[in-house]
Specification:
The protein has no helices and 8 strands. It has about 130 residues and is an all-beta fold. About 20% of the residues are buried.
């Protein structure tokens, strides 16, 4: 699971090298909101000093216009997202269908201030209990 926090340079550590078949890849990150299906993408290079053991990335979440070529995202909802990571030769491609291979999938949780979420109140809850 990846955890991203709002307006922060988030350090993400994964193990992608063992699943990657191309040399010197650039990784394309694709996040899909589980409720709205809105997609967000960014590219980030691996900054790990021991790439055979782990891969380290910095993904920055921000409220201003992001530059996805620098690993920046502007996510609208604090929520759960599905993530997909693709290895590719290109350092500028943002279209996952043109990447070389998908190397990992999973869940990403984005912690955002709750006041930005829609909260429904005054609802009624009815529970039915069945006896034997």
């Amino acid at each position: 699971m990846i955890l991203l926090q709002e307006n922060t340079a988030n350090i993400v550590v994964l193990t992608l090298t063992e699943k990657t078949t191309i040399n010197a890849p650039t990784y394309l990150f694709r996040f899909v909101n589980k409720q709205t299906n809105v997609e967000y993408v960014c590219i980030q290079s691996d900054t790990s000093t021991y790439k055979t053991r782990y891969n380290k990335f910095t993904i920055t979440t921000q409220s201003t216009t992001p530059n996805p070529l620098l690993g920046q995202l502007k996510l609208s909802l604090g929520d759960e997202y599905e993530y997909y990571i693709y290895a590719q030769v290109s350092t500028t491609n943002l279209d996952y269908t043109l990447s070389n291979e998908m190397v990992e999938t999973g869940i990403m949780r984005y912690d955002k201030i709750l006041t930005d979420r829609i909260i429904f109140t005054n609802g009624t809850t009815t529970r039915k209990v069945f006896g034997a």
